[in-house]
Amino acid sequence: KDTSIFYGSFLTPAIPAEALVQLGPFDFINIDTEGSSAELFRRFLVVGFRPAVFAVEHDNQVDACTAAALDAGYQLEFENGVNVIYGRNAT
Questions:
Q1: Region 49-68 average pLDDT
Q2: Which strand (E) or helix (H) includes residue 54?
């Protein structure tokens, strides 16, 4: 069978962006939070979260995400209809 169905519940902790910064450093972060990915990506940048690479489900907010990424020292590496990938500029 190719798929399965989960019936039940589970708890998962929520970690604020500011606390996640303390767990790093990270080389790669993928953000896919179903409708809030672009907002979360921009929040990570505001709090100083700086992995080498971000992959972000852009929620049709490519321009806003890219502007924030460029301001934070990242460059656009890849874009498609759903995702963007930003790499930190080498200094």
A1: 95
A2: strand 53-57
Round to whole Å and give the CA distance between 78 and 48: 22
- Could you tell me how many residues make up the chain? 91
Percentage of residues in the chain having pLDDT higher than 70: 97
Query: Tokens standing for 86?
Result: 């930003």
- Residue with more model confidence, 48 or 2: 48
Cβ proximity of 56 and 37 under 8 Å: yes
